[in-house]
Amino acid sequence: MHDFTRKILAWYKKQGRKDLPWQQNKTAYRVWISEIMLQQTQVKTVIPYYLRFMENFPDIASLASASLDSVLALWAGLGYYTRARNLHKTAIIIQNNYYGKFPSDVEKIIELPGIGRSTASAILAFSEKQALTILDGNVKRVLARLHTVAGWPGKPDIEKKLWAIAEAYTPTSRYIADYTQAIMDLGATVCTRSKPKCIECPVSSECLAFEQNETALYPNPSPKKSLPTKHIFFLLLKNQKNEILLERRPEAGIWGGLWSLPETTTPDLPFSYLNNFGLSTKNKTQALDPIKHIFSHFKLIATPVQHLVKSTSTRAMSNTSILWHNPHNPLPKGVPAPIKKLLMQLAREFP
Ligand code: SF4
């Protein structure tokens, strides 16, 4: 066994995290849900979401038979909703094609929606003790510092180098589960993005970045790209009962499948919209403060514009992708956090 591996295993035994909810009863299903939730999200944020999710969907069969709406509702607030849609799709595939049991072959797992090589390996390392290598963001940071690997880890050639280093340190199946947790924990709690705690680090004597006092230089950041800004308008259509029209967003794209306000590129109510939904309005409109939200690939500035709707046709009322929401009633399942905030603010202001 490599010295590095031995040292972090010994460190894990004394100081690693062993009481996280997904570390108990490590089935492939439980590990998978935790790994997906933990992507781009901190442990303390994930814990309550994970517990609620497990309570509602304790196994693949319950997740596969649930409606997408109820899955998205339990995800609301965690962001990156594609993760939730992929969980649902994958559960259905496993239920239908694998008799409800996670495949044991890493290549088969990688074919499932939303599961990359590192996540697939983590699932099998934890649940079946298969000696597979992981390389998530935390591990990339540790290894880039340890070996002063220059270049952004998102670049294919740099990633290839890091995979090779990670594979060299991966132990046999006897130690794989502890090692996998140990290296994840080391990155998350000691070798942190800013101000790594090198004095407490079990592998500081082998770390080139520490020796050269250059920990801040590794891993290299991603090439700077300024996010484009998208300006849109949210239509706040209010009927005579003070109800607000919500519309289910298309499956593809941001907030896919969630309930939101109708979106337009101009503050006016488009003619096609009036026509399709059988609405008519008085001319009175009112613009509210813009909502700002940052997505991974753009900034959104959305100005809510209030229109008073004079009447609604039965055609509009029977459309299943819209609903009239009374701001004083509980919100429907699956509303994105910024829209939820706006609707709650309206509830306070409405009579
Ligand atoms: Fe990270 Fe510091 Fe440990 Fe190197 S010595 S692996 S930089 S915590």
Description:
The structure is a single chain. The mean pLDDT is 88. A hairpin with a 4-residue loop joins strand 6 and strand 7. By secondary structure, the chain is an alpha+beta fold. Strands 1, 4, 5, 6 and 7 form a 5-stranded mixed sheet that branches. Strands 3-2-8 form a 3-stranded antiparallel sheet. Helix 1 packs across helix 11. Iron/sulfur cluster binds next to helix 9 and helix 12.
Oligomer: single chain
Series of secondary-structure elements, N-terminal to C-terminal: HHHHHHHHHHHHEEEEHEEEHEH
List the uncertain runs: none
* C-alpha termini separation: 70 Å
Task: Catalogue the ligands.
Answer: iron/sulfur cluster
Strand residue percentage = 5-15%
Class derived from helix and strand content: alpha+beta
Instruction: Specify the helix fraction band.
Output: 40-55%
Report the radius of gyration as a whole number of Å. 24 Å
Largest sheet: 5 strands, mixed
According to DSSP, the number of beta strands is 8
Shape descriptor: elongated
Total helix count?
A: 15
- Compute the average pLDDT: 88
Strand-helix topology:
Blueprint (H helix, E strand, L loop, with lengths): L2 H13 L12 H11 L4 H14 L3 H6 L2 H8 L6 H16 L8 H5 L6 H12 L8 H10 L9 H14 L3 H18 L17 H4 L17 E10 L5 E5 L10 E2 L2 E2 L6 H7 L1 E9 L3 E4 L4 E14 L1 H5 L3 E4 L11 H13 L2
Parallel strand pairs: 1-7
Antiparallel strand pairs: 1-4, 2-3, 2-8, 5-7, 6-7
Short recap of the structure:
The protein has 351 residues and is of the alpha+beta class.
